[in-house]
Write a structure and sequence with these properties.
Blueprint lengths: L4 E6 L7 H15 L3 E6 L21 H12 L2 E7 L7 H10 L6 E3 L6 E3 L5 E7 L4 H6 L4 H14 L4 E6 L7 H25 L1
């Protein structure tokens, strides 16, 4: 793990999406701030998104997933950019997590115990999440199931800390000026992440 390594993961399947623009804005300024940035577009990877066996080793990783694991291990900070669909992450991102964040890589249960080791400690994360609902509605009425899932039951479970979250919505009705403000926010967050990595290096 190198101190300046920053990984940006795009969990939207379309390369022309708002999420893709947010990911690029974040990555561009983080690189300008001194971080060593790698971008990973999940829609371009070739892999079976279905975890077909719970036993480690039964389902070999495809080359793209092996490279993804190496990129995560090398990173000090990972930004995840994706939309909320049906209250949570895309099937593409969920399938990626099922295949990549496996026992022995992301976590390991202790023998004879309900406790576990967080194997991805020492890394921070940031979620840039778009949605058609207003963020206030997603927070107070839907109770943010996707945010809780990704932060608590995936990233923090595996050792990421802290995990910051930015919500952008409602996308469907957003005028161009609001979208530009979201892109500016992504740039600011990317710059801050890059500077934090440089200071720690």
């Amino acid at each position: 793990m190198e101190d300046r390594q920053l990984l940006v993961v795009l969990g939207h399947p379309r390369p022309d999406s708002l999420c893709a623009a947010l990911a690029e804005a974040y990555a561009e300024v983080a690189r300008a701030a001194g971080a060593q940035v790698t971008r990973m577009d999940l829609g371009l990877l070739r892999f079976d998104p279905v975890l077909r066996s719970a036993r480690a080793g039964d389902q070999a990783l495809e080359p793209d997933l092996h490279q993804a694991q190496q990129a995560i291990l090398a990173a000090r900070h990972v930004a995840w950019v994706y939309p909320v669909w049906w209250g949570t992450m895309t099937a593409l991102l969920k399938g990626f997590l099922d295949r990549v964040f496996v026992s022995g890589f992301a976590y390991r249960y202790r023998s004879g115990s309900a406790l576990w080791d967080r194997l991805l400690q020492g890394r921070s994360a940031e979620l840039l999440v778009t949605m058609d609902a207003p963020p206030w509605y997603y927070r107070w009425f839907d109770r943010m199931p996707g945010h809780w899932q990704m932060r608590r039951t995936v990233l923090e479970f595996c050792g990421f800390k802290p995990v910051r979250i930015a919500s952008y919505g409602a996308v469907r009705s957003a005028p161009p000026q609001r979208i530009e403000r979201w892109l500016a926010d992504a740039r600011q967050r990317g710059e801050q992440a890059g500077r934090r990595l440089v200071r720690r290096a």
